[in-house]
């Protein structure tokens, strides 16, 4: 199951990862109409949440996380440095991948409780991070295509 879970997550995350290679430094400012979130905010937010999952769900307790987008709960306009965003999201990718790979077969049925989503098995929590990233990847794709 571990092999299946990592492959599932990696494939699902391509919806987000594949967008990153085509983003320009001007794209991070893009938004659609009155949409409160810029492309830069969404990149940072996906990475913030992946790091939170790495630490709080998949047990990487030594990981230091400052989930600024979660704390601010809105785009404050500070996520505009594309290189920094790409480095940060790669770090989040690496940490979440490591966290997923560190789980044993039995771990996937273990329950965890968080204030964000209640009690879930690790398998269910994996579904949660997969859907979260895919949701925001869709938003990012629309912003990159139609945003100004």
From TrEMBL:
Signal sequence segment: none
Superkingdom of origin organism: Bacteria
Start and end residues of each DinB-like domain: 11-140
Protein name per Swiss-Prot or TrEMBL: DinB family protein
């Amino acid at each position: 199951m571990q092999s299946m879970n990592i492959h599932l997550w990696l494939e699902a995350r391509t919806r987000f990862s594949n967008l990153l290679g085509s983003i320009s430094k001007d794209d991070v400012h893009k938004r659609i109409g009155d949409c409160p979130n810029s492309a830069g905010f969404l990149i940072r937010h996906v990475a913030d949440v992946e790091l939170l999952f790495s630490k709080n769900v998949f047990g990487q307790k030594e990981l230091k996380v400052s989930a600024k987008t979660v704390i601010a709960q809105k785009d404050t306009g500070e996520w505009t440095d594309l290189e920094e965003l790409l480095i940060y999201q790669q770090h989040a990718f690496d940490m979440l991948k490591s966290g997923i790979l560190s789980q044993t077969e039995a771990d996937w049925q273990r329950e965890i409780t968080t204030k964000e989503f209640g009690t879930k098995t690790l398998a269910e929590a994996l579904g949660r991070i997969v859907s979260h990233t895919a949701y925001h990847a869709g938003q990012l794709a629309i912003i990159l295509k139609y945003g100004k």
